[in-house]
Each structure stands twice: as structure tokens, then as C-alpha cells.
Amino acid sequence: MAEITLYNTATRRKERFEPLNRKNVRMYVCGPTVYDRAHLGNARPVIVFDVLFRLLRHVYGADHVRYVRNFTDVDDKINATALARKEAGATGSLEELIAERTDETIRWYHEDMEALGTLRPTEEPRATAFIGQMVAMIEGLIASGHAYTADGHVLFRVRSYAEYGALSGRSVDDMIAGARVEVAPYKEDPMDFVLWKPSSDDLPGWESPWGRGRPGWHIECSAMAYELLGDRFDIHGGGNDLQFPHHENEIAQSRCAGHGFARVWMHNEMLQVEGKKMSKSLGNFFTVRDLLEQGVPGEVIRFVFLSTHYRKPMDWTEAKAREAEATLRKWWRQTRWVDEGDIYEPVVDALADDLNTPLAIAELHQLSHVADARTLKRMARLLGLLTDELGTWAEDADVAPEVAGWIEQLLGDRVAARSAKNWARADEIRDLLVDAGVEVRDGQEPAWVLKPEFDPAKLEALK
Ligand code: AMP
Ligand code: ZN
Q1: Model confidence pTM above 0.85
Q2: In angstroms, rounded to a whole number, what is the distance separating the alpha carbons of residues 331 and 334?
Q3: Which residues keep their CB under 5 angstroms from ion ligand 2?
Q4: To the nearest 10°, the Cα dihedral for 54, 57, 63, 69?
Q5: pLDDT tens-digit series, residues 85-136
Q6: Got the DSSP string for 24-92?
Q7: Does the beta carbon of 278 sit less than 6 angstroms from any atom of ligand 1?
Q8: pLDDT in tens, 156-178
Q9: C-beta 277 within 6 A of ligand 1
Q10: CA distance 171 to 178
């Protein structure tokens, strides 16, 4: 069994990964707030943790990995988009407009992320389906003195948790100095954060011991992770922009509620635009959908992401996309007509070494160079590349179905010639194919692979 090592943000080093239960490996990743299309940066954690999901399934078995990624479907930004629609004349109550907006955004999210070859997580809980669990957790935190009510709000008392800041390795005072903490008159301490807040009548709200209101963002993940993964689980992931305050707050809430919570914390670095994080608020973003509509195949986007290690910042460039496309076209050509071969451990080992996807890709290039198409196909698929789901976009331009049919026919003629012991004819066909750039493999099933120098015109001449 491959030994996996992962960089744990909480300990700031690479650690050997040993799941709590090999039959039930559990991972939670913070998902999107569903108010708009995902931008390209949002795709990074989705792809990174998809590769980890695939690796864990490979090592522990597909039925032994549970991956939870939430949808935050209660949020001021969602309310704002629904309100804007109402003001623009949309019919329906605000609640209906909100539901419309979140449903539509979730549908887009699935479409866009599936175009990138990512698997659906085992569970995709919506925050609004777990309000009861959040309320229960908040009640517990109040009872144990870790939270207090003030002015219709419930706040978490950060100073009550001595280890606050341990994830990022900073003290509370340092964090106050560096953070944009919201100062509010009802807070005992500026670092305290909201667990529950009141809702006005025109906003979504739920009845609670503190009146009609809605949860804060951080408690959502703590409650859903506990409900779906239990007291302790293996891996918690997300972008490194979530490390503070979101993940520090998740830890504080869950630990103070008496839960073990996550053991390994993993954070992907940011997708950047000219040195700055791509984000909606900076306005320096484009969506995954924009790229797909410009004709950039999802598989190319995936490949570009995997070419950089997840703990390094990266830029999206057209040059990278062009290079990725050329590589994928070549690989498609090589592997289209072969069956999957055997596992090639160097690729698994690269992924098992803290998801070293650039090294895994380098190993795939090696397989391509030595024309081991079967192994290339099997191992590319471990990275979610060259899969049937991602379609045949690369193949169409290179191998028209009639060309493939023609090659198959020539190979069939060759098999017939050989069984008739007409060796001269069999060799002739092989030489003609090789000359056109079609490599012929004699096996139980004769297979063929198009070499980069494949020239369909030469094949035409054979007709
Ligand atoms: P949000 O909807 O902003 O909470 O983000 C959803 C996920 O995308 C989180 O895991 C973020 O850390 C991640 N994310 C947001 N912006 C970027 C970016 N520019 N690069 C990589 N990940 C990002
Ligand atoms: Zn979260």
C-alpha cells in the first residue's frame, strides 16, 4: 500500500498519513457560497482535493472514502442578489427568489466543476438543511461559557479558547493587529465572532432560542462536519485564504463543543492575477464558464492547475493553456485506442508525496516518450485526465472516425494476411501504416497508436 505523506498546516510539516479508520477515510472541504458563478480561483481547491479524493480511493478503496463539501446557501450576498432581482421586477417572494438563485448557482457549479473532470463528493450538504444542528451546537457553547448572547446576537468568546490561533501559529493579539475585525458595541472583545445573528422580517430566518435569525458562516462547517463525519475525522481542506479567520473559528467552536475535529489541515495556495489573489471583491476575475465558452477545454484547465504544486501560488496564462492542450492532444492520440494498462507506481508515489502533481505529470511524459500508451492511460486517469467523462475533444481534430475505421480495416486485412501465411502482404500493410505515423502493436488484440508525426494524408493515399 502506498504510503501517503501530507503537509499539515497545523504542524507546519509533512506527516505520514494514517487514517483513523482505513475503512472510512473522511475528508471535509469548505465549499462555495452559492450566489454566483465560480471564478477560476474557486476551481483550484475543487481540483486539488479531487486529486486527493482519487488518490485516497485508489489507496483505500473507492467505498472507503467519504468526502464532504458543503454549499453555503445562507449569506448576505445571496440575499443581496435576490433583492436586486426583486427590485429589477422579478416576481415571487424574496424567499422564492433566494431559492431560485441558490438552486441555479448549484446547478452551474456542478456543470462547471464536472467540465473540469472533478468527481462529485460523497455528500454535498446545504447549510440550510442543518440549522437545527447549528442551534444545538451554539446552545452547548453558551452552556459551557464559550459563547454569550448580546443584542440579539450570539458571539463566540475567543479568549475562552487558549489555543486560538494555533493553526496559523499566531497569537490573538497579533491577529487583532493584522485583521479587519468587525468592531461592534455588543462584543466583549473585538475578536469575538458571530455564531448567530438576528434576521429582519424581510430576510431569511429560522426560529431559535435567541429569536428569529440565521447562523454565522463558521458554525455551518463545524456543525455539518460533525453531523456527517463524526467527532473526529482525517482531513480538512480549503484555500489558504480560509485559514484565518474561518478555519481558526471552526476549530475553536468544534473543540470547545468537545469534538476532536480534523487531524490534518490542508490549504491550497491562491490562483493569482498579476501577483494578487483572484477574487470577486478585487474584480480581477473571470469565471470557469468564461474560459469554457472561449473554447478552452475543461481538461486543459485541469491540466494547467495540476502542473503547479498546490502549495505554490500560480497564474493562469494562455501560454500554459496552449502547452497543456498540445500535450493532451498527443496523449489522446497515443491512448485513444488502447485499453488501460497496469499501475505504474512512480505516478502513485508522486501523488502520495503531498500531492506532487507536477512530478506525476513528468512521469506521464516519460510514459508517453517510451510509447507505453496503456500505462499512460491508466495513470493519467488516476489524475482525472484522459477520462471518458472529459470527452473526445482532443481526438476529433486528429482522428476522424473514418480515419480510425480505415486503420482498423487495414489492421484487419493484416490479421487475415497473416493467418493466410501471406507474410509479404502483412509486412507491407505494417510498413505502410508505420510510414504514415501509425505504430502497430502485435498483441492478442492488435492495437495501434498514433505517433506525433502521424500524417493522415499518407493514410489517405493507401485507400
Ligand atoms: P469562497 O466562495 O470565496 O468562500 O471560496 C470557495 C473556495 O475557493 C475556498 O476554498 C477558497 O479558499 C477558494 N478560493 C477563493 N479564491 C481563490 C483563489 N484565487 N485561488 C485559489 N482558491 C481560491
Ligand atoms: Zn468551512
Answers
A1: yes
A2: 5
A3: 30, 221
A4: -50
A5: 888 999 988 889 999 999 999 999 999 999 999 999 999 999 999 999 999 9
A6: SEEEEE---BTTSPPBGGGHHHHHHHHHHHHHHHHHH-GGGEEEEE-BB---HHHHHHHHHHHHTT--S
A7: yes
A8: 999 999 999 999 988 888 877 76
A9: yes
A10: 11
